[in-house]
Write a structure and sequence with these properties.
Chain lengths: 136, 302
C-alpha cells in the first residue's frame, strides 16, 4: 500500500513483511506497482528492490494507477494516467510473474470511458515479450 | 510498544478534525503538542517532519470521508447548504466515527444523530429529514439483498385466503412529507452537467431556488417505493393504499388481511378496489418485488 510515514518501532521493510505474511498465510498477492512507486519516493528506496523481492509465483493480480506529485511527497490519487516510472515497474513485474490480470485504477477526476480504456490497453505493449505466468 | 498501542495512538490523531484552514491541529489527543506526539511514533525524513507526515494521513482521512458524505447525500447538502453540510458532517463523523470496513455505511447513523440535533437543519427540518431518508433508501435499494422472485405464474396457484408473500429486501417503502424524489432528481441533474466556474454559480443558484420552492410547498403525504431494476435504482410513486398493502405484507400479514388494512377508511370506491389490487399485484410481480416470506416471520406465525 502507499505509505507516507515510517515508524520508530518498525523492524522490517514492507516487502519483508509482505513476504512473511503471504508465506505464512499461503496466499496470493495483489501487487500494486503504483503504490510501490509512491512509497519508494516517499521513503527513498529503490522500487525495483521491492518488485524483485516479491515471490513472483504468488502474484495473482497487478494494479496500476496515476498519482500526484507535491513538493515534498507523492500522493496516491488515482486521478491521472499511469506515469512512466510506474509502467517500468509494471514491465518488470510481468517479466517476473508472466501474463497477469491487471487492473487500472482511475476513480477520481474520471475522464471519458475511451480515455480510460486506452490507458488500460497500454499494458498490452509489455505483454509481447513475456510468456504465460512463468516466474523469473 | 505493542502494535495495537501504536495503531490506537495513530488513529486518535488521524481522526481528530482538521482546523478551519484544513490543517492538522497543533494540540494532540493527549492534550500536549501534536509535534511532540507525532515525533514519539513517526520518523522524520529529509523533506518532512514527523508532524507533516502524520498530517498527510489526518488530512486525507477527512477529505475522503467528507467527499464520501457529499457523494452519498447531495440532496441533503442542497437542502441545508454546502457550508452547513460540511460542518454538520464533521460534527457527525466526530461523534460517530466510521466503524465499518466500507465507506458505504458511513451515513448509517446520520438520521438518528440528526433527530437528536435538529438545530443543524434550521427551518427545513421535515424537508431535510425526508431527503436524508430518501438518499439512504436509495443506497440500500442499490445493494440490498434480492431473493428469488416469485413470478406471476407462481402467484396464480397460491389463492388460499391465508396466502402470505414476502417483499424483496431491496424494495424500500417511504412515507414522506414533501416530493423530495423530484427535488433529488433535479439536484442530481444539476450536478451531472459539465460545469465551468460560471455555470457552477448558475447551478448553485438554481439548486437553491429549487430547494426554496420545495420548502415553501405545503407538506402533503407522498408515498414512495425505492427499488432496483437491472442494477439501477428507481423511485416509484405509490398510493397510500399500496404503501399500507406492501408494508403489511412485509410485516407478515396475509394477503387478505393486508388488503383489508390497505382499504380501511380508503377513499377508493368499493367497486374499484378489486381491479386496483389486481393491477398493483401484476405490476409488482412483473417488477419482481414478491418473494417467499421471511423465515423468521413464518416461524412467528407457527
Amino acid at each position: 500500500m502507499s505509505s507516507y510515514a515510517e515508524y520508530h518501532v518498525s523492524q522490517m521493510t514492507e516487502w519483508e513483511f509482505l513476504n512473511e505474511v503471504v508465506e505464512q498465510a499461503d496466499c496470493g498477492i495483489l501487487l500494486d506497482v503504483n503504490n510501490i512507486y509512491v512509497s519508494s519516493q516517499n521513503h527513498s528506496f529503490d522500487p525495483f528492490t521491492y518488485v524483485n523481492s516479491v515471490p513472483a509465483e504468488r502474484v495473482a493480480q497487478i494494479h496500476i494507477a496515476g498519482h500526484s506529485k507535491f513538493k515534498k511527497y507523492i500522493l496516491d490519487t488515482h486521478d491521472h494516467p499511469v506515469l512512466d516510472p510506474v509502467w517500468k515497474l509494471y514491465e518488470r513485474a510481468i517479466q517476473r510473474a508472466g501474463h497477469t490480470a491487471t487492473l487500472l485504477e482511475w476513480d477520481d477526476s474520471i475522464p471519458s470511458f475511451e480515455e480510460v480504456h486506452r490507458e488500460a490497453l497500454k499494458a498490452n505493449r509489455f505483454l509481447a515479450d513475456t510468456t504465460l505466468a512463468v516466474a523469473v | 510498544m505493542t502494535l495495537v498501542t501504536l495503531q490506537r495512538a495513530i488513529a486518535r490523531a488521524v481522526m481528530q478534525p482538521l482546523t478551519s484552514s484544513e490543517r492538522m491541529r497543533r494540540s494532540a489527543p493527549d492534550g500536549g503538542a501534536m509535534s511532540a506526539y507525532a515525533a514519539r511514533f513517526i520518523k522524520p525524513n529529509d523533506r518532512l517532519t514527523s508532524f507533516e507526515r502524520l498530517e498527510i494521513y489526518n488530512r486525507q482521512y477527512w477529505f475522503r470521508l467528507l467527499s464520501s458524505m457529499v457523494e452519498d447525500f447531495p440532496g441533503l447538502r442542497a437542502v441545508v447548504g454546502s457550508k452547513r453540510f460540511e460542518a454538520m458532517s464533521t460534527a457527525y463523523l466526530t461523534d460517530c466515527p466510521s466503524r465499518s470496513f466500507t465507506l458505504r455505511n458511513l451515513g448509517a447513523g446520520l438520521e438518528g444523530w440528526l433527530r437528536k440535533r435538529p438545530h443543524w437543519l434550521r427551518g427545513n427540518r421535515l424537508l431535510a429529514l425526508d431527503m436524508l431518508r430518501l438518499e439512504w433508501a436509495e443506497l440500500e435499494a442499490f445493494d440490498g439483498q434480492a431473493k428469488p422472485a416469485l413470478r406471476a405464474e407462481d402467484l396464480q396457484g397460491m389463492a388460499a385466503p391465508d396466502l402470505r408473500l414476502g417483499v424483496q429486501p431491496y424494495v424500500k417503502l417511504l412515507e414522506l412529507h414533501y416530493p423530495v424524489d423530484d427535488l433529488l432528481l433535479a439536484v442530481k441533474a444539476g450536478n451531472d452537467q459539465s460545469i465551468s466556474f460560471a455555470s457552477n454559480a448558475v447551478q448553485h443558484r438554481r439548486k437553491h431556488t429549487e430547494v426554496q420552492a420545495a420548502a415553501k410547498q405545503k407538506s402533503a403525504p407522498v408515498f414512495l417505493a425505492v427499488h432496483r431494476l437491472d442494477f439501477s435504482v428507481y423511485f416509484r410513486r405509490i398510493s397510500q393504499e399500496e404503501y399500507v398493502l406492501l408494508g403489511s405484507l412485509r410485516n407478515g400479514k396475509s394477503v387478505q388481511r393486508a388488503i383489508e388494512l390497505a382499504f380501511h377508511e380508503s377513499a377508493v370506491p368499493s367497486a374499484d378496489r378489486a381491479s386496483s389490487v389486481q393491477h398493483s399485484f401484476q405490476t409488482w410481480a412483473t417488477l419482481g418485488w414478491f418473494c417467499q416470506q421471511d423465515e423468521n416471520l413464518r416461524a412467528i406465525k407457527k
